UniProtKB/TrEMBL annotation:
It comes from the Bacteria. It is an enzyme of class 3 (hydrolase). The lineage of its organism: Bacteria, Bacillati, Bacillota, Clostridia, Eubacteriales. GO terms for molecular function: hydrolase activity. The chain crosses the membrane at residues 12-29, 36-57, 63-80, 92-110, 122-143. The keyword RNA-binding does not apply. This is Sigma-E processing peptidase SpoIIGA. The keyword Phosphoprotein does not apply. It comes from Faecalibacterium intestinale. Keywords: Hydrolase, Membrane, Transmembrane, Transmembrane helix.
Length: 278
């Protein structure tokens, strides 16, 4: 017996289901993304399900396709915030997909290239996905998140808008000693490619050889005390945007750690977090 599959319905249903699964993976990993990136990741996931309509592949090729498509979907939605964090996101997204597709033991389920066609109506499937997401939010509201989560924000500096994953650290205090402006700390390597060329070249020279910045870029230095000792961090004027909130009058100080310090790319303290609404 042949099954008629409407491609537009297949893409639309899988788009909505993928959005719920990606949000669920983000909840479990303490991550967030913008609405635009969520839509892009959901669209990529929906397109990947067209493998269901392709001729049957050999098992190794089907497994490789599922792994690559899973990683690509998560990367489009959340980026690649470090190997460990990215692996956790991929693992939870794959696990949630596996739970949803665990119905392959039910009669009437059809599979092809490790893609599953469930014998349920689109509305029922979407209600189930929304129910799983609501259950996850309820569990996290009762028991708390597994870790303090990062949140998506945009840092405006030197005429560029740089997407960042901000982390609120209650113990972080850094301030401009001259003007008293509040300071956020930015990991330089993850955001380097998004910075304007003049600023990028200046920071490259500073971190490589301690070369003084040229005049005109507005670069100043902020003294910083850490467990490793005291140092000077190059900083530029910036504004931080999160949703509808905008916090101007900041300094964005850059650090270049030898290894990634985790999922965050921007660190902020209580003073900025209050204005951002965290």
């Amino acid at each position: 017996m042949k099954t008629v599959v409407f491609v537009d319905e297949l893409l639309l249903v899988n788009f909505a289901a993928a959005a719920a699964l990606l949000l669920g993976a983000g909840l479990l990993c303490g991550r967030s993304c913008t609405g635009l990136r969520l839509c892009a990741g959901s669209a990529a996931a929906a397109v990947s399900t067209l493998a269901l309509l392709a001729p049957p592949w050999c098992a190794p090729l089907a497994v490789l396709y599922k792994i690559v498509s899973c990683c690509c979907v998560v990367a489009v939605c959340y980026g690649v915030p470090g190997a460990r964090s990215f692996a956790r996101l991929c693992g939870w997204y794959a696990a949630l997909n596996g739970v949803l597709c665990g119905a392959v033991v039910l009669p009437g389920v059809q599979t092809n290239n490790l893609s599953v066609l469930l014998p349920v109506r689109p509305g029922q499937l979407l209600i189930c996905c929304a129910g799983v997401y609501a259950l996850l939010r309820g569990l996290l509201a009762v028991f708390g998140r597994p870790q303090r989560g990062c949140f998506a924000a945009v840092l405006h500096l030197a005429g560029a808008a740089v997407p960042v994953q901000a982390y609120h650290d209650t113990g972080f205090t850094l301030q401009d000693p001259l003007a008293g402006r509040r300071v956020v700390l930015v990991q330089y390597p993850p955001v380097r490619s998004r910075l304007p060329a003049p600023l990028r070249e200046t920071l490259d020279s500073w971190f490589a050889a301690g070369a003084a910045p040229p005049p005109g870029l507005g670069v100043q230095f902020v003294p910083c005390a850490a467990v490793t000792g005291r140092c000077l961090l190059p900083a530029v004027p910036a504004a931080l945007c999160c949703g509808q909130r905008r916090v101007p009058g900041l300094l964005a100080a850059f650090c270049a750690p030898d290894a990634p310090a985790g999922a965050w790319t921007l660190l902020l303290g209580d003073d900025v977090a209050e204005d951002v609404g965290v």
